[in-house]
Amino acid sequence: MILLDSLLTLACEEVFAYLCGGGRAEETVTIEAENGGYYVQLKFLFKAHEFNLRAFNLTAAVSLGDTASLDEMGLLIASRSVDRFCFTEDLQHGPGLVLIKEKSYPAPAGLETPEVGATGDFCIKTPEPESLKLFVRLVAAHYPEHLYTESFRLPGKVVDMVESGEYGVARELF
């Protein structure tokens, strides 16, 4: 089961309302939801007659005196309520809009990071989640932030990214 957070629900409602307002009665809007482990993705497939992409420009603003601008306010709210969005093209349905909201993760509490010693003989296996979290903490403790991705600041997120297939990992055993 996919649970939507309130901001993604709001974004979904705003996009759906906009598409229904600009579409024709005989046309359908398809909404596909996907659980990506560390994110939830909603894909809207629709026939685009007048879908204005302006609201998805991060510099776009709404003018209270402009009626056309007010019509796009829902799309502006939707674009600011999600972590990422992109546009797709489906051969069967036409254009699509993808909204992505990432799961929230707690920042790691000031845990001690053990010292790493010299390695000897080893073999490789898939790490369990706690070993992976320790690895992420070790990376953050021993390397400058510009050398690893932002997700490495949240060990639980990296575990979910591995489980979803976004990252692959292997661990050496001594």
Overall description:
31% of the residues lie in helices and 20% in strands. The protein is of the alpha+beta class. It has two domains: 6-102, 2-Layer Sandwich (Heat Shock Protein 90); 123-173, no CATH class. Helix 1 (6-22) runs antiparallel to helix 3 and helix 4 (129-142) packs across helix 5 (155-163). The relative contact order is 0.16. The model has no long low-confidence stretch (mean pLDDT 82).
**SSE order in H/E notation?**
HEEHHEEEHHE
Main sheet attributes: strand count, strand direction, barrel closure:
4 strands, antiparallel
**Count of β-strands:** 6
Point out poorly predicted stretches. Answer: none
Overall 3D form: elongated
Question: Can you list the strand order of the major beta sheet?
Answer: 1-2-4-3
Radius of gyration: 21 Å
Instruction: Calculate the terminal CA-CA distance, rounded to whole Å.
Output: 40 Å
Average pLDDT, all residues: 82
CATH T-level topology of the largest domain: Heat Shock Protein 90
CATH class categorisation of the largest domain: Alpha Beta
**What is the percent of helical residues?**
25-40%
Assign the CATH superfamily of the largest domain.
Answer: Histidine kinase-like ATPase, C-terminal domain
Q: What is the CATH architecture descriptor of the largest domain?
A: 2-Layer Sandwich
Query: Strand pairing plus helix content: what structural class?
Result: alpha+beta
Q: Report the β-strand fraction as a percent range.
A: 15-25%
Number of helices: 5
Number of domains: 2
